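Run log, item B.
One chain of 386 residues. Sequence copied directly from the ordering sheet:
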Amino acid sequence: MIEGEIPLTHPEGWAAIKVRQRHIVICITGHGFGHAVRVLQVAKRLLDLDPNFVFTVVAPVAEWFLRDTFRTETFRLIPLRLDLGTIQSDAVEANPKLTLERYTEFVLGREAVFDQLKAALGETEVDLVLVDLPPLGCELGAWLGVPTVAIGNFSWDWIYGEYVEEYPEYGWVVEEIREQYSTTDLLLQLPYAGDMTAFPVREEIPWICRRATVEPEDVRKKLGIDKTKPIALVSFGGIGMTVKLPEGELSKNIEFIVTAPLNGMIGNGRKIDNSELAAKGLGFTDLLRASNLVVSKPGYGIVSECISAKVPMLYTERTHFREYPLLVAGMKRHIRCELLNSEMLASGEWQPAFEALFAHRTLAAEPDPDTDGDMVAAEAIYKLFT
């Protein structure tokens, strides 16, 4: 165990006692922000349960992203990529063949990655491995001989399984990943999940969502946005894409905000990056809740946050993403949403989709789902220590 010293008030004065710290290694896929966001939310809830948790985060993310999440010194970062995810040309299209080819290259070199990881951990004792959801993370837990807990709404054997139907020579990829996942002690399965039978023990949990902390009117004030003008937030995640915004009346009457620098922009809109938000004391979820609608591709992070904030969504099509129809099904049950098809997105002719979204005012079938999955997951993990 990791030991640290903290001062405590004592009848005889200040005394230093040894505190047992619990060390969790968090292994996160580099596939997108949504995976990192949700598993780090669980880490925050673990700290609410017990401040003596410390974390080593293994993921190809920037340190500022972790500091923005934790705002403490309870973590360290090992910036290693533990899986490949999907090879994409942009946020809405994946390349199955190239993904399988690159995964083969990754597997051939993964021993070097594993050696780097073991060297970085050194002699530090680990109590648990938390994975979302690189197979190599599960393999790490088995190698260390500690409990391994996974969180997810899809697994890579299921995603690649669709690719292998077209390229059967890569069938070994799916089998190997399933074998790695089979060593996991517990999967905390999120709503609208794919086939997760590679994990021997599964427990369903509610949505995990980040929550805004700044009121919408204060967000508008900080960003200098007219309080009478609707906000359309255009966000395509970590990979991003070039977006052609509408012209004409829509561009005059709506404040289009495009997250940057990850997205290119054509037309009359405003780019806002994370550094600008941080400088004004805001986070992405604050901006999202202050918006009147979101334009994005259906990914777990943005969908869950729209559900939590009750913000409508214009969603784009995605090619070769097996989780896409499941997330769309979840959206249709919990928020107002409408398809912005590829032709509309490319041309900037968004008016029909806007009209369909707001004129029909179709209500969600289940507008208030449980969104406390972060605490449910944290409590499930905490039980393993008690």
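Observations after the first pass:
- Residues 1-18 have pLDDT under 50 and may be disordered.
- The two ends are 15 Å apart (CA to CA).
Flagged for discussion on Thursday.
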